[in-house]
Design a protein that fits this description.
The protein is built from no helices and eleven strands. It is mainly beta. Strands 2, 4, 5, 6, 9, 10 and 11 form a seven-stranded mixed β-sheet that branches. The chain is globular.
């Protein structure tokens, strides 16, 4: 079993920054990839950024150049640094851990609200 605990959401003005954290515990050796998804009302959950055990990162086009995902192996924590935030970034952000190839574990979600 793997558990994920997120923190760091909040309210920020457009152009501001936030950093999300996701701490993993339990059978973390099973984790292959970690990522951040987001979901806003009436929309499907979308992948924002992901990072492999080897450190390879990938981003959805709308956040490239603004968001950075990183991973601290010693702390079993993944971060999402979000800069130059826009109102359209407003959503609930979920941490995700992929176990092996097929099993997904989710955090409880943290609200990010960007005011214009």
């Amino acid at each position: 079993q793997v558990q994920l605990v997120e923190s760091g959401g909040g309210l920020v003005q457009a152009g501001g920054s936030l950093r999300l954290s996701c701490a993993a515990s339990g059978s973390i050796f099973l984790i292959s990839t970690m990522g951040w998804y987001r979901q806003s009302p009436g929309k499907q959950r979308e992948l924002v950024a992901s990072i492999t055990n080897g450190g390879a990162a990938d981003y959805t086009d709308s956040v490239k150049g603004r968001f950075t995902i990183s991973r601290d192996g010693a702390k079993n924590t993944v971060y999402l640094q979000m800069n130059y935030l826009k109102p359209e970034d407003t959503a609930v952000y979920f941490c995700n851990a992929r176990l092996g190839s097929f099993v997904d574990v989710w955090g409880q979600g943290t609200q990010v609200t960007v005011s214009s």
